[in-house]
Every structure is written in C-alpha cells, then in structure tokens.
Amino acid sequence: MSSQRLGLFAALVPNCILNILFSLTAVALNSVTIHAIRKTSATRLPRTLRIFLLSLALSDLGVGLIAQPFIVALHFDWLLEKPYQTTAKDVDAFGIMAGLSIYASMLNVMALTTDRFLGVHLHLRYEEIVTVKRVAVAVAIIWVLSGVLSIAGLWITSLVSYQVYNTALIAPCLLTTALLHCKILAVVRRHGNAIWAQQEIVQNRNSTFTNVQRHKPSIRSTFYVYLISLLCYLPVACLGALGIKYDTENIGLLILQLYSVTFWFASSCLNPLIFCWNLRQIRRTVLGMLRSIFSRRSTTTGPEVGYY
Q: pTM of the entire structure?
C-alpha cells in the first residue's frame, strides 16, 4: 500500500467513526426532543414556539439520518473502490440529500431568533401578529426554500465551488441572526434600565419586565444554538473563503476539509441538549419520559412474588 493510500486511510477512517457517533447521537437526541415537544402542553409551551422547535429538531434529525450516513458511505466508497476520486454524481447526490437538512437547519435558527425578537419587541401585540397559521406558513416556506436551494446547487456549483456556494447562502443567515440577537439585547437592556415616575408607566414597565422574563429562557437557548452553529460552521466558512478545495495530494488540507464538515454537522447533536437544558418545560417532559421508562423496566424486571 502506497504512502498516499495510507495517509488517505488514516484520514478517512477516524472521520467515519466520528460521523457514525454524531449521526447516532443526533438521531437519538432529536427523536427524544421531538417526542418531548409534542407531549409538552400548549399551556406550558406556546404553540408558535413549539412549531419552530419541531422544525429545527426535524432538520437536525435529517442531518443525522441523511447527511452524515451519506458521508460515511461516500468515504467507504472512496476507500474500497476508488482512491478519493469524487465524481459529479457523488457531489450531486450529496448536495440534494444533505443540502435540504443543512439549509433548513440554518434557516430555522434564523426564524427562531426572529420569533424571539418579535416576542420582546411587539410585547402585547405578539400573539395578535405571530399566529399559529403564519408560523406554519413560515416553516413551510423554509423547507420549500431549502429544497430549492439544494437543487439549485446542482448547476450553480458548476460555476463556483460547493464551499463558496454554501458560504454565500449561510453567511447571510448567520449575520442576520447575529443582528437580531443584538437587537434583542438592546430591547432587554432598554426595558431593564428605563425608569418611569408615573404609576401608569410603572405598571406598563412591570408588564414589559414580565414579558421579557417570560421569553428569557427561549432567548437564551436560541442564542446558544446560534453560537454553536456559528462556531461549528466557522472552519468550513474559512476554508471556503480561502478557496481551498479537496486535494488528495495534500493530506493536511484533505484532513482539514473532512473534519471541518464533520465539525459543522456536530451542531445537530448539541441543539437538542441546549433546548432540553434551558427550557424547563421540555426538560420536565424529558425527565418524565425517562422516569416512566425506568419505572416500567424496574417493574418488569423486579422479583416475582410467589403465592403458596
């Protein structure tokens, strides 16, 4: 076996193992999160927020079910049949299958941040403007747009590299989300630092403060999800901005490319953990599900009682 083949083997096998672990974790955690969100009552978790959270969890589940297993299969194909010779058919298949979930995940993070911004900005008008029907339409648009973007990548990537195409699509989402978080912070600070003298204004301040406090856990969770998405995507964005492509002759650059994509997909494992940890409603539902499972197991595996 040549030294190049050995280097390729050393780069692909650990990456396959990581993708398998991340894929299994993403599928398990997002499946539990989806079930927990569905079981959480509308009185404990607003229906509009539930729709956005379900959409994000479904897109992350798609990354674990589609994108990461396809990467593993592609790596095995490279190892067993052809020494890392990517065909146009392989790239097209990956673009369609993975692009839908990847773009939907980023767009869902932006939509969720927009929803939290409207929650603190509109105050009492939020429920009047942000209705369940409008949120459902917005989520449908996100998935349709993600599908269009993934299919459009088939002919656009013939003009520019796949990394440049991804950067051109995802960078505006990340920048818009960052701007929205800055506006949310400004609204929270403005409400927290304002001082009113008249009693009527004080009452309005108290209601505003209560509104901000009510949205705080979901705002914090959304910010953490955005931060994780940004950190996980930065390696891919940097390599794409530098115009670095897959190069089998340079094992170092090859490893950078492979592991940057794996690191990007790792956010799908972390998002459900963030929501389960920060949103008390979902956390309680998950703990209740776990207690029910373990109590049922202890009942079925307990000692049998004999009757004499």
A: 0.82
